[in-house]
Amino acid sequence: MKKICLSLLAIGVIFALAGCSSGETKRTDKTEKSQTTATSKEKSVSTKSAVPTVFIHGYGGTINSFGGMIQRLSNEGKTKKEMLITVQSDGTLNVDGQLSKEKDNPSIQVLFAANKDNEWNQTEWIYNVLKYLKQQGVDQVNLVGHSMGGVSSLRYLTTYGQPNDASVIKKFIAIGAPFNDFDDTANNQSIDDLLQNGPNTLASRYVDYSKGINNVPNKLPVLLLAGKLNENDMSDGTVPLSSALAAYSLLKTHGNPIDYQIFTGSNAQHSQLHENPAVDKAVANFLWK
Questions:
Q1: Residue-range definition of the domain harbouring residue 107
Q2: 3 lies in a domain?
Q3: Pairwise CA distance, residues 217 & 214, whole Å
Q4: For position 205, what pLDDT does the model report?
Q5: Half-sphere exposure (Cβ direction) of 16: Cα atoms closer than 13 Å
Q6: What start and end residues bound the annotated signal peptide (predicted)?
Q7: Is the distance from CB of 260 to CB of 248 less than 8 angstroms?
Q8: pLDDT tens digits, one per residue of 131-156
Q9: CATH number for position 93
Q10: pLDDT tens digits, 30-61
Q11: Is there a domain that residue 9 lies in?
């Protein structure tokens, strides 16, 4: 009898273990199915259009400034570089490539030959680029600017708005752009207060934006991307976090749909932001999803 009881107990243990194993397998299958569904859904919401995205480099920038990001996004099938426009110091354009007008999320890289010139001249050059694109039949573009490229892009918007003779800006992304110059309000103002009320110390650049804000279409979606080296260093090593996010309140109050993301670590260093895969993802999600 004792042997029979031990045998039955052993069989019961085996079935119990088998039941647990089966339960774990089901949970794993469910998880895998869920992940597959999420991946399929993610792919399905990615959109392709013929609207070009114009990339504007920062102070002293070169073809490498946005070249890596465009190449990485191209490798992922999210965009296709179709044109390179070099703006000479007199405002004339050298154009390499041609827009296919296919729905491949085309990218246009803009280079300034005088890559250390002031933001007022850059604003005029952006206008020249968008006028040229309008002449080529391009009604809308996305605009992505790093550092001074973001500063000049917002100055373009606050100066010109959406002129009839230039391509309309559909979406705008600024990466590490010092909108309040290099003034850092972090010592006497929290980021939450900055986002709610704007900077409590105003640089002349920010004052100019405030004066021209009514020229900005208030339905233009905007994304601000900023970096900080660590929890104790509230800057990307060049641009204070409080300056990169300074325009948030101004644009939000104006009615613009606006969002922001903060990146932390060595890949959030100023010149590394446009080499950061997480920034790539943020740019792609905002533009093409």
A1: 51-288
A2: no
A3: 7
A4: 97
A5: 6
A6: 1-18
A7: yes
A8: 999 999 999 999 999 999 999 999 99
A9: 3.40.50.1820
A10: 222 222 223 333 444 578 999 999 999 999 99
A11: no
- Burial (CB < 10 A; 0-12, 13-18, 19+), residue 109, is buried
CA dihedral 281, 153, 162, 280 (to 10 degrees): -10
Amino acid at 160: Y
Structure-token pair, residue 72: 């990485």
Q: Is 224 helix (H, G, I), strand (E, B) or coil?
A: strand
Whether residue 39 is contained in a domain is answered as no
Query: Is 1 part of a structural domain of the chain?
Result: no
Which token pair is 273? 């932001």
In this structure, how many other beta carbons lie within 10 angstroms of the beta carbon of residue 26? 10
Q: Are 264 and 228 in contact (CB under 8 A)?
A: yes
Encoding tokens for residue 168?
């309309």
Count of structural domains, the chain: 1
Angle in degrees, CA 66, 184, 186, rounded to 5 = 110
Measured between alpha carbons, how far is 283 from 101 in angstroms, rounded to an integer?
21
How far apart are the C-alpha atoms of 168 and 38, rounded to whole Å?
Answer: 34
CA distance 208 to 28: 57
Q: Please tell me whether the overall predicted TM-score, pTM, comes out greater than 0.90 for this model.
A: no
